[in-house]
Amino acid sequence: MADSPQKPIVIRDLESFEDLQQAEALEREVWRLDDRDVMPLTLMIATKEAGSVWVGAFDGPQLAGFAFGFLAMESGHITLHSHMLAVREPYRSLDLGYKLKLAQRERALAMRVPEITWTFDPLQSRNAHLNFGKLGVVSDIYKVDFYGPETSSVLHQNGTDRLWVRWPLASRRVRDRLQGKDHRPEVLDAFSRLQPLVQFNGDGNPLRNDLSAALARQRIAIQIPSDILTVEQKDPNLAREWRQATRWAFTEALRAGFFVAEFARTVRGHQGPGNYLLEKGSIAEYVPELQRRPDAPR
Ligand SMILES: CC(C)(COP(=O)(O)OP(=O)(O)OC[C@H]1O[C@@H](n2cnc3c(N)ncnc32)[C@H](O)[C@@H]1OP(=O)(O)O)[C@@H](O)C(=O)NCCC(=O)NCCS
């Protein structure tokens, strides 16, 4: 295994049986799953043959990361639902996750699929930054224990709550984000005026602030730790408190008509807590290019 990549990494479709075998091994390595939770190779082959999108990042012949998305029907609209994105540890923070999402986007647009959806753990700061900050997703759905209370994965030991995110591929918001238009000053300015609904209390614990005061405002911030996996390893009870507090904040805010618009770290780099920014109002007005759900307000 390479300590760090030496050659340019090539992003391409997974094509052969061996490519998919490498994806299976990489899934085991990244999520550290029992056999019962690993996607069977036969299903991988079937989804690929039936038009699902499997893209990989290759360091020579070796797979460094991959993304898998299947065609789906959501509220009467065709989407690509991205079920897995994984980059091996030595290759992280080199933009590979981002490039794999761009490759998924290209494949989806070529199939005239305008939206990709996926889920992620809202306590994972890295994923939040990649999804909201770099890619420009939005979300108005929070799923409590989406995969059940736990799975065999090391990444699923603190419950499996998920934000269901939507990526409107050709929208102005996403195009601006992919062109690197800097949205951070505006977002950080918003945070500077808000007391988060959940925030650090000074000794690493989550503090819940007044809900009715927060719901009366136009915007809500929700703070998360910069590295929840380290918190989980050192103090599982504290990690559970963060889960309970942020679950409370997201579910109450979304129920009251907010949606999740942004995420930003308080300082650049990996350190420092991150903040979600939730806006009150219609997600469809905020991003007009989103496919309309039948139950959405007009
Ligand atoms: C999520 C994952 C795919 C990201 O892959 P990656 O190749 O590291 O992604 P990128 O390099 O494109 O982007 C990561 C960004 O997060 C930043 N980052 C790293 N640690 C961070 C942290 N603790 N908090 C916030 N941001 C962080 C990186 O600096 C980088 O941002 P930048 O380009 O602005 O500097 C990878 O971490 C992974 O495989 N995780 C485990 C599996 C998983 O969670 N999959 C997704 C859900 S299904």
Describe the structure.
By secondary structure, this protein is of the alpha+beta class. The protein has two domains: 1-113, Gcn5-related N-acetyltransferase (GNAT) (Aminopeptidase, 3-Layer(aba) Sandwich), CATH 3.40.630; 119-160 and 168-298, no CATH class. Helices cover 34% and strands 27% of the residues. It is built from ten helices and twelve strands. The strands form three sheets. A seven-stranded mixed beta sheet has the order 1-2-3-4-5-7-6. The protein has a three-stranded antiparallel beta sheet with strand order 10-12-11, sandwiched between helices. A hairpin with a 2-residue loop joins β3 (62-74) and β4. α8 crosses α9 (236-255). The longest helix is centred in the last third of the chain and has 20 residues, at 236-255. The protein is globular.
Question: How do the helices and strands line up, and which of them pair or pack?
Answer:
Elements: E1 10-13, H1 17-31, H2 41-49, E2 53-59, E3 62-74, E4 77-87, H3 96-110, E5 115-120, H4 125-135, E6 138-143, E7 162-168, H5 172-178, H6 184-192, E8 198-200, E9 206-208, H7 211-215, E10 219-224, H8 228-234, H9 236-255, E11 258-265, E12 274-280, H10 283-286
Parallel strand pairs: 4-5
Antiparallel strand pairs: 1-2, 2-3, 3-4, 5-7, 6-7, 8-9, 10-12, 11-12
